[in-house]
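retry 2 of 3: previous attempt timed out while embedding prephenic acid. Reduced batch size to 1 and resubmitted. Inputs unchanged:
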Amino acid sequence: MNPLSTAPDAGRQRPRVLVRGTGLLGASIGIRLSADGHAVQLSDPSGTAESIARDIGAGQIREAGDPDPEIVVVAAPPEVTAAEAADALVEFPESVVLDVASVKAEVLRQLRELALSPGHDLSPADLTRYVGTHPMAGREQSGPVAARGELFTSMPWVITPAHDPATGEQIPSPSAVAWAEEIARRCGATVHYMDPQEHDASVALISHLPQIAASLIASRLQDAPTSALALAGNGLRDVTRIAASDPNLWVQILAANAAPVVEILHGLRDDVVRLIRTLEDPRAPGRQADIAQLISEGNSGRARVPGKHGAPPQSFARLIVIVDDRPGQIAAVLNDVAKVGVNVEDMRMDHSAGHQVGMVELSVLPGRCEELAEALTELGWKVVQS
Ligand SMILES: NC(=O)c1ccc[n+]([C@@H]2O[C@H](COP(=O)([O-])OP(=O)(O)OC[C@H]3O[C@@H](n4cnc5c(N)ncnc54)[C@H](O)[C@@H]3O)[C@@H](O)[C@H]2O)c1
Ligand SMILES: O=C(O)C(=O)C[C@]1(C(=O)O)C=C[C@@H](O)C=C1
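retry 2 succeeded.
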């Protein structure tokens, strides 16, 4: 009997996993599952991506004659995801097949079309072993070199089981869904369930809109004078980090989720037009209240962004440690923080223009900030609380 025909057994089973597509996502999953004791096989049309993934500990390159995987994770670009998942369902008739593409309804639509197509070996019954998923974690860099085993820790991972449009019944078997959930948990993520359409509408707002906004803002900088760019502070860095993302990937994501994105862009356009009108004559009666309203609407939205583990938003206390600008200083600070036993929730490094010093900004729980500042000062660090 297929060991995966039942739900995960109290976390003891370690099914063999094939990761198809060993870029950022695939290699990160491979690292995490290998560390958790799974035998992970790797395959990618790019031999370089496969070799790098293997070399960084994501698993072993799948060779002819290797045993069939029990779980396949398709981590390929969105436009080939349905075809890759279909091939895996046909090639490994006992395996559970997951994908991690950023869009869900279009992948499912293509898979259904393949299952109904007389020219394809995929049958509708095979779809009982397919589970669409989407880890809400990534980076602006791609390829296995950017992979990190910790990528998914405490981040949401959405599972989007398909339902039969006629009967409303869930298509993937309960054990396939349970295994998808188990893989997400073993990668350190927190699991959410949604149907594919609700997922796509949600990510249009919380993922696709930010990407578009970051790209549009960063594109304004292309011809900016170098003297202006030299003044760039954290505000600009915060809102443009994801503007460095892969254009190829985003063409595919936005094209596959265009309708919900367009709806949101209409609303954004209305707000931009309103702001332009206001600022054309900012001293006219009522205009300053308009500006204040726009900024405070942003405050309200921002306050709703949840913290780690989907917990309510939490403001961390921040302290800045001033370090000499030489190798090993960040590690030395973090080492001392670990000695004090305080968890760092976030960290960033900044340089003071024209000075040979760096500023390591540490975000910690407010209740631990005072104690950490005192301990680091005692250990000889220059500490500033902000
Ligand atoms: N980048 C992110 O932040 C992020 C986050 C969550 C989900 N995703 C999704 O994960 C998937 C992979 O994205 P990524 O960021 O790892 O991209 P990536 O470019 O880092 O890696 C994609 C890999 O897929 C390989 N590939 C290309 N065609 C293939 C095929 N037909 N079969 C198997 N592999 C193939 C490429 O050679 C490459 O190594 C995408 O579907 C993306 O939507 C990305
Ligand atoms: O943090 C980043 O760099 C990301 O772009 C990650 C992000 C996101 O919007 O949160 C981007 C696209 C993916 O589909 C999932 C995650």
